[in-house]
Specification:
Layout lengths: L1 E4 L8 H14 L4 E5 L5 H7 L10 H7 L15 E2 L5 E4 L5 H10 L5 H8 L5 E5 L6 H9 L2 E6 L3 H21 L4 E7 L7 H12 L13 H9 L3 H4 L4 H19 L1
Parallel strand pairs: 1-5, 1-6, 2-4, 2-5, 6-7
Antiparallel strand pairs: 3-4
Helix pairs in contact: 1-2, 1-11, 5-6
């Protein structure tokens, strides 16, 4: 399963969701790969920072390799770095992604990630983290993925941006990836005692938007997991927010099996 977590709005928890769902998949025994396409590299730091691993190759090296003709390109898995967590590898981000984007767009390399992932062997699950913008890398991820999960943080501005986001995904789906499925909108940093989040979520459901039943609460434990470079399932498996992530993972896995 190739899953991308995407929203054009920043600060909605894309990276946290990617890393924690991937860590749960790995803890369940699935050989799991995280591909970090965000130049900020937060997923890379989250998962590799604990042991100070320095990747010998990264995602910029992969995209750079597509700019030159070669009869035999390196296997995509060769760009991965082993994380401290069993069954979990990371293809690290790089600041060089920024300087490559113009060349990649000019040479129309938008399908290279899709082609590489289709040939990928040895992994049961792939999670893709994206930049908070509809740019070359996020489009590459949406073209390469089978499913897209949309984080939403219950803000009125985020609600307005959500409509544009869904339209953009549908347009890309029609033009480039007809099999891409929107898994749903996952409400993140939810505060059940606050009136505004409840009102916004109810409005989205009344509009028949695919809001998932499983919501993720706001918690300082999430920030602590960032600081310690340990996903919640490794930091505190029994914590309330950890169990919310487990419930989300199981719901997504169940829906994938039923499809």
């Amino acid at each position: 399963m190739r899953r991308v977590v995407f929203n054009q709005k920043g600060g909605v928890g894309k990276t946290t969701i990617v890393c924690n769902l991937a860590a749960i998949a790995a803890a369940r025994g699935l050989r799991t790969l995280v591909v970090d396409l965000d130049t900020q590299g937060n997923a890379t730091q989250y998962l590799l920072g604990a042991n100070g691993a320095v990747p010998s190759r990264d995602i910029a090296d992969f995209f750079d390799s597509t700019l030159a003709f070669s009869l035999q390109s390196p296997a995509f898995a060769s760009y991965a770095t082993t994380s401290p967590f069993a069954n979990l590898d990371v293809i690290a981000s790089s600041p060089r992604l920024e300087e490559l984007i113009v060349k990649l767009e000019a040479k129309q390399k938008i399908y290279k990630l899709r082609d590489a992932l289709k040939k990928l062997r040895g992994y049961d699950a792939v999670f893709i983290d994206t930049p908070p913008a509809m740019n070359f890398y996020s489009r590459s991820a949406l073209i390469a993925a089978e499913r897209v999960l949309i984080p939403f943080d219950c803000d009125e501005f985020a609600r307005q941006a959500l409509y544009t986001l869904l339209e953009n995904i549908q347009e890309l789906r029609a033009d480039h990836n007809e099999t891409l499925m929107v898994e749903g909108i996952v409400v993140n940093q939810f505060q059940p005692r606050a009136k505004l989040p409840i009102r916004v979520v109810e409005a989205l459901r009344e509009e028949k938007l695919p809001v998932l039943a499983q919501m993720l609460s706001s918690s300082v434990r999430v920030r602590e997991s960032h600081e310690q470079h340990r996903p919640l399932i490794a930091l505190e498996p029994g914590h309330r927010v950890t169990q919310e992530y487990v419930a989300l993972y199981e719901a997504l896995a169940g829906a994938a099996r039923a499809a």
